[in-house]
Fold this sequence. Notes:
Elements: H1 2-21, E1 25-31, E2 49-53, E3 62-67, H2 76-83, E4 96-99, E5 117-121, H3 146-159, E6 167-173, H4 175-182, H5 184-190, E7 196-202, H6 217-229, H7 237-240, E8 262-267, H8 271-278, H9 290-294, H10 301-318, E9 327-332, H11 343-346, E10 353-354, E11 357-358, H12 359-367, E12 374-376, H13 419-435
Parallel strand pairs: 3-5, 3-6, 6-7, 7-8, 8-9, 9-12
Antiparallel strand pairs: 1-2, 1-4, 2-5, 10-11
Helix pairs in contact: 1-13
Amino acid sequence: xxxxxxxxxxxxxxxxxxxxxxxxxxxxxxxxxxxxxxxxxxxxxxxxxxxxxxxxxxxxxxxxxxxxxxxxxxxxxxxxxxxxxxxxxxxxxxxxxxxxxxxxxxxxxxxxxxxxxxxxxxxxxxxxxxxxxxxxxxxxxxxxxxxxxxxxxxxxxxxxxxxxxxxxxxxxxxxxxxxxxxxxxxxxxxxxxxxxxxxxxxxxxxxxxxxxxxxxxxxxxxxxxxxxxxxxxxxxxxxxxxxxxxxxxxxxxxxxxxxxxxxxxxxxxxxxxxxxxxxxxxxxxxxxxxxxxxxxxxxxxxxxxxxxxxxxxxxxxxxxxxxxxxxxxxxxxxxxxxxxxxxxxxxxxxxxxxxxxxxxxxxxxxxxxxxxxxxxxxxxxxxxxxxxxxxxxxxxxxxxxxxxxxxxxxxxxxxxxxxxxxxxxxxxxxxxxxxxxx
Length: 438
Ligand SMILES: *[C@@H]1O[C@H](CO)[C@@H](O)[C@H](O)[C@H]1NC(C)=O
């Protein structure tokens, strides 16, 4: 009797654990070998790569191409360092990544895109897929070919069925969100004209702002990125015909001319922008912003005031997006960065809402023209549904090495857990253990 009970209990526990694990499914890597002949390679010359989960049912002809983020490298020194990492070489990439949030294959976790063909493109060029320098210095073996990689990846996906696409979305997070802005119309042109094509930029709206010391830190940095990677010729000509190429790396200078429908998803207090654009380590030699950047609850009233000013500048830069219904906007007053890839922010019972609407529903309603969505939250701390980031000081070297634009949040945290569900599974087991009729 006791044995039978124990067996039942163990089976139930095992079953629930398996169910919980399937919240995020691991998807294997595909190397785009045929890109190498086109010179479309990662920083170290290795082939680019993506992870592809095939669409099914009514989603079989729908394609979501999502670009990974991970900062940028602005000169030979920082690109050489990146070349040795997964952000510069497919030889260093994990063979599998977890698909969750907008990449999930479960309807309950991903209302509108769960059965689409879902692709996560790995970031490996260091310039949001804009670079193209023919010459390769034999001393460094650095390849600045991001723009070629972008085209090679899309061409490869076209050959794998995207040429029959009915619906397609170009999306991305952080530096990948910037990719989806800078390449939005190019993607539109590569996908068949009969397809409904839209772009989604998650945490990709980086603004041109003076840092707390008054220096043009991000402006200088972007100019160096564009110069090092030879990106100018691949940035929208509507911008480069008027402004310095470095400025055309900023969404606020290109977004007005984008013809394809575009959705901007961004936290108004974007944690990456606060840490690296507003208060980068170089601008804060005494580290007075250190603990505030780790946890918004630690910020002093003065720092919060500066962050409120940041929000106003962010909203001002965002106003250029305009109010056409083809433009979507979800600007929550949270301290976070990238909210589409993580289940906890994309769609969950407690995920962030604006006007009672989750990010997943807002993006789906906009994509399918069910209703436009353009909402800007009231100022911090008015939204209790935020999942504000709290950083571990040891995990984020940019606080010590201010020049590093390594991503703190280029991918969802693998340690992500759902305490509530764990508790629920224990309760269910307990219930069955005690009351299961035998
Ligand atoms: C490269 O960029 C980093 C970060 O901005 C900077 O600290 C470093 O001095 C630069 N190196 C060169 C050789 O310009």
